Amino acid sequence: MTLLCLPDLKYKENNIMYNFEKKFNGTVKFTYPDWKMKALAFSYDDANIADRRLVEIFNRYGMKGTFHIPSAWLKTKPENRITEAEINTLYNGHEVSGHGANHLNMAQLAKDKIAQEVAEDCREWQRILGHKLTGYSYPYGAYSNEVIEVLKANNLIYSRTVEHAEDFYLPEDFMKWHPHAHHRDNIAELGIKFLDFKAEKLSVLLIWGHSYEIPRENHWELIEDFCAQMANKEDIFYAAMGDIARYVNSISKITTADNGKTLINNSDETVYYLLDGQKCVIEPAG
Ligand SMILES: [Zn+2]
Hints:
Elements: H1 16-21, E1 28-31, E2 38-45, H2 51-61, E3 65-69, H3 73-76, H4 84-90, E4 95-98, H5 111-129, E5 135-137, H6 145-153, E6 158-160, E7 181-182, H7 187-196, E8 203-209, H8 213-216, H9 220-230, E9 236-238, H10 241-252, E10 254-257, E11 262-265, E12 271-275, E13 278-282
Parallel strand pairs: 2-3, 2-8, 2-9, 3-4, 5-6, 7-8
Antiparallel strand pairs: 1-12, 10-11, 12-13
Helix pairs in contact: 2-9, 5-6, 7-9
The chain binds zinc ion.
């Protein structure tokens, strides 16, 4: 991928937030927490032991990672793998996400096998983490409508592909969340473009990869330089993918009353917005 693939960053009419904000006649603009418009997220698959160094770098620069791990691999393919015993300490402050219990190509499986693969992964992660998974990434990037149906039936609200996002706005469909770049794809330049980007609506930059590729391709410095370049920016929400997908889900639960004069937050988290440019929050109604 080259950066030339990113077209002029116009706000597309099929963007998820566009349709939603139309309800409020353009006066309400939803933001991330602390009225930020831009989020930075990282998505790493397969839980190689190189995750240890990657997490250490993320922690040092205040970055939040999402780590997609096939739960059965902790037992069946333990070589160079993060162990079950260290999952909750290593990834503390980050997100553990699903990746198919056995990392099968789910687009090639019968629906009952897909259901088995996802249910086993969700069950195992609930046992290990003590809470439910929020999302997924597709092993081999392979998905189908059937796979998506099964993920949704398991209450998973996002899943990452290996395709390329065309702009910095939120994905049209969180079940087909395309990253912007693999970390080897000139992320320094992409990072500058994102820092310079004047976001009109909720935006995200999503970088993906496998941590084992980093030592193999001698890229530790590249990762560290990128984190240093992107760190400590007041207008960036450093978030796991699950934080972003869940927050947007909360926004989508907001309804209006009094002919649109009152907003009601039917989610369980505080939602931030701008009303004619003024900073506002709306607390959960329940
Ligand atoms: Zn994988």
